[in-house]
Amino acid sequence: MRDGRTFVLGAGFSAPAGYSTLDKLWARAMNFWQLEEPALFDELSSWERADVGSSRVGGDLVVDLCTQIEMMHYFDRANFSAQRLYALKYFLAKAVHLPEKGVSIPPYYDDFVKGLATTDFVISLNWDVLLEVLLVKHGIPYSYRGEAGKLHLMKPHGSIHWSYFEPSKQPSGWLGIGTNTFANNAFMSHDSWLQPRCHLPLIMLPGYGKLTAVNQLQWVWSTLIKVSLSRGCSIIGFSAGNDDFMISSLLRYVLKDLCGDGVFKVHILNPCSDHASRIASLVQSAVPVKVEGLFSHETVDFALMNCQ
Fold first, then answer.
1. Are residues 227 and 81 in the same domain?
2. Which residues contact 34 (CB under 8 A, 6 or more apart)?
3. Of 79, 97, 115, the domain-final residue
């Protein structure tokens, strides 16, 4: 049994490093799609394109758009090309991985990662590989399967460098990490995303996608309820949106029986007081809950639970 801390990372963890949040992601993905595969892009309706070129597509609308395309894939296959769903996942992943221009990773991310230990659990709800890149940079071994002596990194929403194959169809360069799930570290670099579309990222889309992709990611979800919450939980940049019911229920489950013994604590980093309150309400126990704002150089110790 691991005796480490538990960290839950939402979109607000990666945003200061230049990774697009949901409200900006759709427009960037549509621009990539229109540029690289115009014929397939032209099959989309004007509603699905959602004002291409605009950065003002709200997060709730993105959930609706993803749900529309995914449901059409499953329920109207006679008239709907599977390539549309595959392209959507690829270009969303590409928009995630290629940060916005002019933004670099702030140095306090290095401080945070250097403060992690191989006994810790990290639940990343992000598709990006920001954390993996930093773990490699600082020589901290990690595993998606919880191998001994390595930080246990769990990604229940999938990852841009994962894909799903039947074992007999596993291509060269892909390493098995879970049931029919393979990772290719080449897609952790920028250069691989400058080539034509060549893989289908295993990512869980918002909305309806959270009911479909969970089957492919069952091996991840089955480990989440086994997380040991012995030394505290730090929740960074997670907002618990309306379509995050599975993660919210999971957190409520694992936090429900905690003991208010003065040792265990829950730290929440979220600049929105409403979101922070929503997360805090998941802790239905006597455990102390402390809240701060943005993840920044001033809150790294708070995020690592190094402060009282």
1. no
2. 41, 52
3. 97
Within-domain flag for 13: yes
Q: Are residues 39 and 147 in the same domain?
A: no
Q: What is the pTM of this model?
A: 0.90
Cα–Cα dist 169/213, whole Å: 20
Query: Does 86 reside within a domain?
Result: yes
Where does 76-217 have alpha helices with state H?
Answer: 82-97, 108-114, 130-137, 209-212
Best CA proximity match to 105, nearest among 192, 25, 12, 19: 19
Say whether both 150 and 12 belong to one domain. Answer: yes
Give the range of the structural domain holding residue 282, as residue numbers without chain letter.
6-18+104-303
> Per the structure block, which two tokens stand in for 304?
């690592």
pLDDT confidence band for 248 (50 / 70 / 90): confident
Average pLDDT over residues 45-74: 67
**Shared-domain flag, residues 89 and 138:** no
Cβ contact 236:109 at 8 Å? no
- Concatenated DSSP letters of 190-226: SGGGGSPP----EE--STTHHHHTTTTTHHHHHHHTT
The residues, ordered by sequence, that sit 6+ positions from 72 with a Cβ below 8 Å of its Cβ are 80, 84
Is the pLDDT at 260 greater than 60, yes or no? no
| pLDDT tens track for 200-221 | 999 998 877 777 788 889 999 9
47 and 195 together in one domain: no
Per-residue pLDDT tens digits for 134-156: 999 999 999 999 899 999 999 99
Burial string for 86-122 (b: 16+ CB within 10 Å, else e) reads bbbbbbbbbbbbbbeeeeebeebbeebbeebebbbbb
Between CA 92 and CA 291 the distance in angstroms is 31
pLDDT tens sequence across 17-34 = 988 777 788 888 888 999
Q: Are residues 108 and 93 in the same domain?
A: no
Instruction: Judge whether 302 and 267 are in contact, CB under 8 Å.
Output: yes
Residue ending a domain, choose from 97, 113, 133: 97
Question: 308 lies in a domain?
Answer: no
